[in-house]
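Deliverable D2.4 — example input (structure tokens):
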């Protein structure tokens, strides 16, 4: 039996004694494509930070690839929500993609030929190779997301975490990004936070509803079909967890 990618048992986290997550049980297996859905303040971003080892749980057990989040961090790629940067900062797309390959003891951002070759391949795979010498601040929302996904993939992660990757893009770019993630899901486990219930249900195999507590559904257990504004048949999340 394969070791689970993520296993939570009774996981809890509080901030100033206010419960943010309570008794979370979660099992993520190899090559799962999971969406985490829930209201603002329901604990979605907090869960990702616990998986990354940026926060420490106050109760329960959490393992990533059978070990602690800190020990497994090198196997995780992360695309944060609303990446903040100075629009006028003169950083080029190719530099953003390559930066995750920098070593902790690097004094200057120097990239070897192997790193830049890998960055070029990722940019080609993601359709942004022509943007390599353009400043990040000049890109559209969809282009920026592709750059940030490329940056996350530079370390060849086994697990890719994305916090609302389509929040700042239009519907066309949203579809492109989800289809891109589905392609990467053939080799990697993907977890994304989203508010777009109908859209993501066409791509994922599991949905975790999170609002302090959690409930996970396999997509084939979810009933119903709806039509969205783009005339695409999508699954509607009719379930009974009430989260």
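Example output (designed residues):
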């Amino acid at each position: 039996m394969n070791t689970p990618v993520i296993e939570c048992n009774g996981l809890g986290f509080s901030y100033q004694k206010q419960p943010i997550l309570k008794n979370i049980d979660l099992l993520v297996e190899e090559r799962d494509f999971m969406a985490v859905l829930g209201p603002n303040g329901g604990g979605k971003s907090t869960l990702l930070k616990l998986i990354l080892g940026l926060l420490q749980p106050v109760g329960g057990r959490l393992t990533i690839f059978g070990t602690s989040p800190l020990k497994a961090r090198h196997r995780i790629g992360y695309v944060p929500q609303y990446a903040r940067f100075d629009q006028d900062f003169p950083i080029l797309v190719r530099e953003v993609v390559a930066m995750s390959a920098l070593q902790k003891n690097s004094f200057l951002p120097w990239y070897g030929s192997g790193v830049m070759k890998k960055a070029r391949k990722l940019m080609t795979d993601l359709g942004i190779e022509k943007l390599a010498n353009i400043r990040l601040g000049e890109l559209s929302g969809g282009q920026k997301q592709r750059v940030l996904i490329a940056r996350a993939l530079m370390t060849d992660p086994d697990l890719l975490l994305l916090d609302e990757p389509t929040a700042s893009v239009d519907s066309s770019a949203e579809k492109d990004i989800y289809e891109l993630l589905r392609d990467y899901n053939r080799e990697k486990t993907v977890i994304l936070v989203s508010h777009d219930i109908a859209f993501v249900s066409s791509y994922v195999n599991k949905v975790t509803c999170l609002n302090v507590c959690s409930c996970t559904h396999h997509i084939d257990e979810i009933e119903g079909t709806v039509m969205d504004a783009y005339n695409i048949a999508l699954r509607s999340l009719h379930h009974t967890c009430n989260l």
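Residues 171 and 230 are 9 Å apart (CA to CA).
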